Amino acid sequence: MKTENKIISLVIISLLVVGFAVGLNLSPTPVSTDSSGTINYGSVVCVYKNGILVSPCTHNLLVNKGKDLVALAVNGTAATITQIAVGNNTATQLVTDTSLATQGTEWAECGLAKATGTYVYRGVGAWNVTKAFTSSCDNIGVNATALQNTADSVLFAETTFTSTTLQTNDILNVTWGIYIS
Asked: What is the pLDDT of residue 63?
């Protein structure tokens, strides 16, 4: 009888321990050591056609996959985020987008295929990525751009700008200026 009581007691204690553990929230709580408690992301995208600003430089949308890329970068496992794509956007951009093509057309021909831009460090927490595209076709509508990682084109951020039509030999220069504080 003593053995049965020990087994029953052991089962009850095990159930209590498991029940307590299940009730705990084991998710880590974000910890901040700076006075503001936040990391701020900012960006501006400027688009030029043949050296003339197409529209005022615009802010962009950091998408969910882009936030994941930041986490991977902190971990040291993310590819560089220097690939620029351009396209013709036909819908509202959303944080759940996974590519520029999600909201319209991402150009893959006519000299407008996504390509690695030039990275320029601008100082603490700030950098630019720039790419010049030369159109090899006529009547190509462009009004959107995306910044992606170079390994597998995971979308980091995207934005739209005033629609412009490219002709053969027109040069579209896209500059992403990014800063964190």
From this structure: 92
Q: Using alpha carbons, select from 176, 66, 169, 160 the residue that is nearest to residue 105.
A: 160
The CA distance from 98 to 20, in Å, is 39
Domain ranges of the chain: 40-180
- The pair of structure tokens assigned to 28 is 């880590």
Predicted pLDDT at 88: 93
* Sites in the chain below the pLDDT cut of 70: 1-37
pLDDT for position 37: 66
User: Could you tell me the CA-to-CA distances from 114 to 51, 52, 81, 109 in Å, in that order?
Assistant: 20, 21, 12, 9
pLDDT in tens, 3-27: 555 544 444 444 333 333 333 333 3
Q: What is the DSSP string of 54-87?
A: SSS-B--EE-HHHHHHHHHHHHT-PPP--EEEEE
Cβ proximity of 158 and 93 under 8 Å: yes
Residue 102: what residue type? T
Q: What is the DSSP annotation of 105-149?
A: EE--STT-S-EE-EEEEEETTEEEEEEEEE--SSSEEEEEEEEE-
Model pTM above 0.90: no
Reported as type and span, the H/E element at residue 20 is helix 2-23
d(CA 54, CA 36): 36
